[in-house]
Design goal:
alpha/beta; Glycerol-3-phosphate (1)-acyltransferase; seven-stranded mixed beta sheet; 8 helices; 7 strands; 14% strand
Length: 262
């Protein structure tokens, strides 16, 4: 009898932004990916440098940000020479970091990403056909250096996320040394990039996106001239410290240095 008198558990209705994500944003972004991915792959049959594909990637990024309601305030972009090649090393808070960087940077960009991304329809086809570096994290292989050298010869820049995974709380994790070995081998300057508050747009492990204000800071390029493989670890720690300091300056409390990175 007492069990019958117990109040039933209230039904939890998902918030508005969950419904907006599932029934509007996911279909819209899927459409952008299919249309622009198809265009970029088709263009790669006749234009192998990926210049048109990059324009598709920038339009894809802009559409995603505008549709979601993400506003990006960038600083330090004037430090970059559009005619030069760099390795941009950014912290990683959200899957939105890629469109944020592509929409903001005045460079021909290619990403260095995990090989599994290449298996995704349209997105993966675009990455494989248009000069992006898809590598095995544990065993990149010597061929990566040759492919990177050919990209540099085409005047493009690379964007890497040296933490290797997205941060749940915004703290900047330990930077892996691999991307810095690549930069040293190619003789490319490293550009630290701080992306603040993007995790509030879409948190890791949560199927919901929200409009938001994001800041992106481009720091002074760091020359790798004269550095050897033995300097990669120290370079990674130096760049990580600059990125974390940039988050603190942007007022992103989660950007405080992580203990394990020291």
């Amino acid at each position: 009898m007492r069990a019958l008198l117990l109040k039933p558990e209230p039904v939890r209705v998902p918030p508005y932004h969950w419904w907006r994500t599932v029934f509007f944003l996911i279909p819209a972004i899927s459409l952008y990916t299919i249309v622009l991915g198809t265009l970029s792959v088709a263009a790669s049959l006749v234009e192998r440098r990926g210049l048109f594909a990059h324009r598709c990637a920038r339009l894809w990024s802009r559409l995603i940000l505008r549709t979601t309601g993400v506003r990006v305030t960038a600083s330090g972009v004037e430090r970059l020479d559009p005619a030069a090649s760099y390795v941009l090393a950014s912290n990683h808070q959200s899957i939105y970091d890629i469109p944020i960087v592509f929409d903001t940077m005045p460079l021909q960009l290619r990403i260095v990403a995990k090989a599994s991304l290449g298996s995704f329809p349209f997105l993966g086809w675009h990455l494989r056909r248009t000069g992006h570096l898809l590598v095995q994290r544990d065993n990149p292989g010597a061929g990566v250096f040759k492919r990177m050298a050919s990209l540099v010869g085409d005047g493009v820049s690379l964007i890497v996320f040296p933490e290797g995974t997205r941060s749940r709380d915004g703290r900047v994790g330990r930077f892996k040394g691999g991307p810095f070995l690549l930069a040293i081998a190619a003789g490319l300057p490293i550009v630290p990039v701080s992306v603040a508050r993007s995790r509030h747009v879409m948190r890791k492990g949560r199927l919901m996106t929200c409009p938001g204000n994001v800041t992106l800071a481009v720091h002074e390029p760091i020359s790798t001239s004269g550095l050897s493989r033995d300097d990669a670890r120290a370079l990674a720690e130096r760049v990580r410290a600059i990125v974390a300091t940039g988050l603190e300056a942007a007022g992103d409390a989660g950007g405080a240095p992580a203990a394990e990175a020291s």
